[in-house]
Amino acid sequence: MAWKRLFRNEDGAAVIELAIALPVLVTMIYGIFECSQLYEANAGMQHALGEGARVATLCVPNTSKTDGCDNPSDTAILNRESAKLFRPAGGTFTLSIPAAAAGYKTLQITYTRPMNFLLFAGPTITLTRTKQVYVPDTGTTVKTCGMTGGPSATSCTMSL
Fold first, then answer.
1. What is the pTM of this model?
2. What is the tens place of the pLDDT at every residue in 83-96?
3. How many angstroms separate the CA atoms of 77 and 71, rounded?
């Protein structure tokens, strides 16, 4: 008779349910926080790439010649990216040296983070973002235009 009464008694059932559900709930909330760190890293990488692209397109005045300009150095681009990169805790950023090609540079940032979900370790996530930046032509361009053959005809010559 005492056993029947014990099995029908529901006192403390809420505590048992809480003990079962709480670890799952806390792990899920912490997992959402961990994933939000990836979004923060992605936003930081995009911001840094944008700043690096802006610096790469600048025409730095040339001090050795009276005309023309130079493109910023790769070090100047990397320094600007590093300064503007906002970082979440717990990951590693790698800034690659800009790869130069004909008329453009490719900027790249990689973020690696081992995921942790409190009760178990998750996979290591790697995010890579790249941006192609068209760099200015640093040659000296001289443009001369003049009217030849009356007001309707124009001639322009460009020399490098």
1. 0.70
2. 998 888 888 999 99
3. 10
